[in-house]
Amino acid sequence: MKASMSGQLMFTPDLENRFSKARLRQAIRTVHLLLVNVRWRGPVMTRRQFEAAALATVLTASVEARATSEVIARQAPAHYRLSVDGLRITALCDGYLNLAHTLFPAATEQHASELAHAAFLTPGPLPTAVNAFAVEAGGRLILIDAGVGPSRGDTLGRLPAEMRAAGLDPALVAAVLLTHLHTDHCGGLLDADGQPVFPNAEILVAEPEWQFWSDPGLAARAPAAMRPMISVANQALGAYRQRITRFMPGTEPIPGIRSVALAGHTPGHTGFILGSSNDAVFIWADIVHVASYQFPRPEWGLSFDVDQTAAADMRARTFAQAAGDRLRVAGMHLAFPGIGHVVRDGAGFRYLAEDWRPLR
Ligand SMILES: [Zn+2]
After folding, report:
1. How far is ligand 1, taken at its centre, from the CA of residue 232, in Å?
2. Of the candidates 12, 117, 229, 272, which lies 20 to 30 Å from 326 by C-alpha distance?
3. 226 CA to centre of ligand 1 in angstroms
4. Ligand 1 centre from 192 Cα, in Å?
5. Residue 183 Cα to ligand 1 middle (Å)
6. Is beta strand 202-206 parallel, antiparallel or unpaired with respect to 244-247?
7. CA distance 92 to 227
8. CATH code for the domain of 324
9. Domain count, the chain
10. Same domain for 237 and 131?
11. Which residues in the chain show pLDDT less than 50?
12. From the CA of 341, how far away is ligand 1's center (Å)?
């Protein structure tokens, strides 16, 4: 970055771009030298050898340039590791979805725009991360939530690829702990053919959550918008039906991982606490869906909350406890890697994302 005469800041081309241009310049220089060689020193190679060498040089440069531009066109792998009390945690991003302010019944367009503007976002549907967390504990690979799966377009369904990029084999997942049974948390249990993505995993789900979604009368009394979610939840439960374990919120479904009842968003909405020291991480699942709206306005419920009043009340209480106890929190819809702290800010709250840290 440099300053122009007018004092404005100007960005120089990024390093990668300069790198690929340098490669191309080098290729042209090589061809030029070959030509010079032929012209002034007589043929050191046959014409056919020269043409082959020149072609190979140009092709190599163009392949390298294309490979570099393809890499630049994709985001870097989305995994981030932390180590807590003997547990190795890997935050993973399944992708993102855009949530419109109209999904928050208490929001007005003007207020939503003001909050987006205050967060340096363009007013309108706001991109919201869908995260999951892998935990290596006692020699077992545990996954907390499974992302959306392949059904929701290009911006989602990346979890298996991100796991592989992080060196975590989906086939080695021993257990999937589910925070709740909404599609963006359990849809990723299945591939595009409806087959289990985690063929060797036990599925652990809170008893009230299992009761709610597996109720055969639910679809008939649910609003139409909820019916696809009911279908996905039951497909996922069905595909793993031999390997489902139900647990009561508040218990320790896996040694070292404590569950916390956070009912409201769904009847069995559950958080998990990893570790026991000051470094412990409280995975609060869907306490927040859009950070720039709900930290300042915890009362803004999401239309997909099964009980919006209870969800808003749980959000406010959870914020207050996290801020008061200085808890390190992690969320499925906080910007990746979704780990940080909550502080009080006037009548509302504010989120402070944790800085990048080396792995200890
Ligand atoms: Zn969610």
Report:
1. 14
2. 117
3. 13
4. 20
5. 8
6. parallel
7. 28
8. 3.60.15.10
9. 2
10. yes
11. 1-19, 27, 30-31, 33-44, 50
12. 19
